[in-house]
Amino acid sequence: MIRLPPLRERGRDAVHLARHFLERSAREYGRGTLRLAPEAAAAVGAYAWPGNVRELQNAMAQAAALGDTDGEVTVSLLPETARPARPRGAPAGDYRARVDAHRRDLIADALGKAGGNRSRAARDLGLSRQALHYLMRELKVAVKPANGKG
Questions:
Q1: Which residues contact 29 (CB under 8 A, 6 or more apart)?
Q2: CA atoms within a 13 Å half-sphere pointing along the CA-CB vector of 5
Q3: Cβ contacts of residue 78 below 8 Å, gap of 6+?
Q4: Model pTM?
Q5: What is the distance in angstroms between the CA of the first residue and the CA of the last residue of the chain?
Q6: Which residues, other chains included, contact 31 with Cβ-Cβ below 8 Å and sequence gap of 6+?
Q7: Do strands 35-36 and 72-73 pair parallel, antiparallel, or not at all (unpaired)?
Q8: Which residues lie below 8 Å from residue 114, measured CB to CB, with a gap of 6+?
Q9: pLDDT tens digit sequence for 51-68
């Protein structure tokens, strides 16, 4: 039997695997060539990856779905749990919180204009349906029924 240590003990391997999964997902989603930004690579190497390789693979697939074509994957595209901790004392209304609030408003507005139709809202926002679904989960945006109930 061959015993492999968990990813949390193999930071450099996690970065190599992340680049491989990112490249594969970028090809699959038609995103061209995506690069892992240095700060994102550092976050990947530092994170424990309790879900091991599958969690890393899913994180890179989500980053590829949300990333700009031929762009750079930054820390903001990684799952929140894999991002470096925010420094203590950072105000609640910091840049990230304000950007997330703006993104929530954009998504809610697009969903409202599309009558709750996620495919149409994604198209109007220039996103894939999967990217919109991921953002809705990440930003906790709920779809209100078209009939006004709920």
A1: 64, 65, 128
A2: 9
A3: 40, 43, 44, 59, 63
A4: 0.59
A5: 54
A6: 25, 64, 65, 67, 68, 69, 70, 71
A7: parallel
A8: 120, 121, 124
A9: 889 999 999 999 999 888
State how far the Cα of 89 lies from the Cα of 19, in Å rounded to an integer. 33
Angle between helix axes 129-139 and 118-125 (nearest 10 degrees) is 100
Looking up tokens 């779809």 gives 143
Taking only the tens place, the pLDDT of each residue in 67-81 is 888 999 999 899 988
8 Å CB contact between 59 and 78 = yes
Q: Which amino acid is at 8?
A: R
Nearest to 135 by CA among 84, 80, 81: 80
- Do 18 and 61 meet the contact criterion of CB atoms below 8 Å apart? no
